[in-house]
Each structure stands twice: as structure tokens, then as C-alpha cells.
Amino acid sequence: MTPPHDDSAIVATLLAQPDRAIFLDFDGTLVDLAATPDGVRLQPGVREALSRLAAHHDGALAIVSGRPVDQIDAMLAPLVLPVAGVHGVERRGFDGQLHVAPTPDISPVLARAQSLAVLHPGLLVEHKRGAVALHYRLAPELEQLCVREMTAAVQACPGVLLLHGKMVLEAKPAASDKGGAIAAFMREAPFAGRVPVFAGDDTTDEAGFATVQQAGGTGVKVGAGASVAERRLDSPDALRAVLLATPQPEPGVAYDDIV
Ligand SMILES: [Mg+2]
Q1: Were both Cys, which of 124, 205, 221, 231 would link to 227 (CB 3.0–4.6 Å)?
Q2: Are the CB atoms for 26 and 252 separated by under 8 Å?
Q3: In the prediction, which pLDDT does 43 show?
Q4: Residue 250: predicted pLDDT
């Protein structure tokens, strides 16, 4: 167990520096985890805070998520941000162009996960572009069975990697990860030449932390658990408090003017 430690003041200072590029995971970082992926809710003020922060950094703010890009868009609407989805398989840059990485055939993993979910109604299968997530949050007693089944299924699929996240097993292309997505953003305007900061909460975010720290930036782990990230916030609440406080808009500038 990680000892209690919170770098809120340092993270607030980093986010306020206008030469940064900001990358944020979504689930468990910006929003609290829920019983099902559809159950998460954006807290009041977070959308407006993201809009202000994006403007403060000349647009160099992106969401880097395991969700598909269109789900992130739906959650943030009417705000539209650069987004990397499905752990980097999909990426829409600041210019609005969508990049999609090649994906190996994942259908055997999907079939196995769906068979398991038929037998065990507490399991939830998500099929995304090039990835399959098996959620067992509603049936935690099935963890070992899920691990066994998904490990076997992935072993039969070259180029597919199994991630073990918070109450979820996700098979995704080995060649795509959040680190690669952040590196791709950093080669493009308005991210290029800035110092990256990435906040995330789960195993899939470790590749992102490594990438930003190799580039001289800062990884921020949200919540407990081992991490390569140099900084830590206690919870999504702690991150939201920092976002809501920093930076404040210019007097007289309305939210609608920024969006
Ligand atoms: Mg997360």
C-alpha cells in the first residue's frame, strides 16, 4: 500500500505554467469510477475548467483514455478536445484529423469474453476498435476465472496484449499504448516544444508516465498503487479541486467565449 501523499500544490503550479502540454486520463482520473462504464458522471464545473485550462495552454490539452474517442466526445460535449482513445489505437489531433492504428484480429478474444459473459451475467463485455474489455466489477469473485480465460485467449492472438486494470481485463494491440499516443501528440502543434504533464490512475497509464518523464515532464498518479509517476494525488477529487482552482479566466470572459 502506498503511504498517503498528495502533491496538489505542486500539480497546481505545473498546470498553471503556460508552457506545459497537459494530458489527462478520463475514468478514475477526471471522473470517479462507477459500477459500469456508462455510469460515470462529469462533476459540475469540470467541463468548464478543462475549457479554461485548454485556452490557458493554447489548446495543448488532450484526453488520453481507454474509451473510444466518440465516447469521450459525448461525455465532454459541447467541449471538443484532442483525444487519444482505446489506449492510443485512435487519436484525434488538435487539427481534428483522426488517426487509427492498424489492429490485429481480436475476434477470438471477443468470442471467449462473450461466451464467459453469457455464463456469468455479472460480467460486462465492451468491444472497441481493436480491443476487448471484460469488466468484472459487478462480480469480483470471478476475477481468477476471467484472468485465466482472457490470458488463454490472448495467447492465441499474436500482437495482442492483456492489461489488468481496476476490475477490468482488457485485450488491446501490443503496438498501441498511451505513451505512444502522447509521443504522437508531442510531435504536433500546439503540443510540440512544450513540457508534458500526464495524470492517470491505472496500469494502462504507466506507459504515459514513462513517456512524459523521459521527455523532461511529469507523471501524476491519481490514487493508490505502485507507479513510476513522480507525483501523486489522492483521488479524482484532488485532481478536480486543482483543475477547478487553476487557472481562473480573465475577468469578463464568459465560458461560452472560450468554448
Ligand atoms: Mg483511468
Answers
A1: 221
A2: no
A3: 94
A4: 59
Contacts of 168 (CB under 8 A, 6+ apart): 133, 134, 135, 136, 137
Instruction: Give the CATH fold of the 107-173 domain.
Output: Alpha-Beta Plaits (3.30.70)
Q: Which residues contact 111 (CB under 8 A, 6 or more apart)?
A: none
Question: Which is it for strands 218-222 and 231-233: parallel, antiparallel or unpaired?
Answer: parallel
Q: Domain 8-100+176-258, what fold?
A: Rossmann fold (3.40.50)
Length, in residues, of the chain: 259
Give the C-alpha separation, 107 to 259, whole Å. Answer: 40
Q: Give me the residues of the chain with pLDDT under 70, please.
A: 1-4, 247-259
Q: How far is the CA of 121 from the centre of ligand 1 (A)?
A: 24
Distance CA 171, CA 110 (A): 9
How remote is the CA of residue 216 from the centroid of ligand 1, in Å?
23
Question: 61-64 and 20-24 as β-strands: parallel, antiparallel, unpaired?
Answer: parallel
Do 8-100+176-258 and 107-173 share a fold?
no
Please, are residues 83 and 62 in contact by the beta-carbon 8 Å criterion?
yes
CA of 188 to the centre of ligand 1 (A): 24
27 CA to centre of ligand 1 in angstroms: 4
The full set of domain ranges for the chain reads 8-100+176-258, 107-173
Per the CB < 8 A criterion, the answer to whether 179 and 192 are in contact is no
In the chain, where do the E strands start and end? 20-24, 61-64, 83-85, 90-92, 98-100, 124-128, 131-135, 160-165, 168-173, 195-200, 218-222, 231-233
123, amino acid identity: L
Report CA-CA distances (Å) from 80 to 16, 22, 95: 21, 15, 11
